[in-house]
Amino acid sequence: MPDNYRSGLDPFLVAEGLALRLTPDQHPNYNAEFAEPVIEDRIKEYLYNAPIIPVKEPRKGMLIRTYNDPNAHHSWLDGEYSQSYYECYLKLVTFELQKGNTAEALRALDTMDHRLPPEVVNSEFLLYNIVANDYAQCGNMQKAKRYAAIALKNIDMMEKVSPDNAVETDQRRHVKLDYMRSGMFMILGKYDEAETLFFKNY
User: Fold this and answer.
1) Strand 13-16 with 19-22, pairing
2) Domain extents for the chain?
3) What is the pLDDT of residue 146?
4) Contact 38, 18 (CB under 8 A)
5) Band (129; pLDDT cuts 50, 70, 90)
6) Which helix (H) or strand (E) holds 145?
7) Which residues contact 196 (CB under 8 A, 6 or more apart)?
8) 87 CB contacts (<8 Å, ≥6 apart)?
9) Cβ neighbourhood burial of 181 (10 Å; 0-12, 13-18, 19+)
10) Residue pLDDT, tens place only, 53-74
11) What letter would DSSP give residue 75?
12) Is the CB of residue 35 less than 8 Å from the CB of residue 94?
């Protein structure tokens, strides 16, 4: 549902997979990034109950096969389309981390990593930055470092697209990207580089 179609309904929406359910009650944190309210059993059924083949009868589950198939034909649009799936998993990850349930958060991350491997599907760098931080919070530093390295490459690529820092908005964007870089350097154990970036901008 596009944001401009909601007309003030955001506080009443709850995520259950890619769909949003309109409820009669307002929910806290409805506008927090990846921390919107979720219906736990329904979003888990949707994300974890992957059908092998299309079915004729209604059932919850997400059938996506091309994103983790390196032999499938991909276009640049696949990266754009995949963001909705990444965000769906990250909502569940955030929900579990807020409860202190790192085992279930890690389950969601690993399922997402299997179905949407970043080496096959190129998506927005910010998502990989968040995934790296979530993996680090869950204690899986091997995968955190893997996503951090990919995030750094994408950040550098974005800077090359618009390297001009003469305009104030570009300067702020540059500082934001450097802040993300420093976080990824910390995950990768490159503490000197992280410290240099931090003090350069702050």
Assistant:
1) antiparallel
2) 3-144, 162-202
3) 96
4) no
5) very high
6) helix 141-161
7) none
8) 34, 127
9) buried
10) 777 777 666 777 778 777 877 7
11) -
12) yes
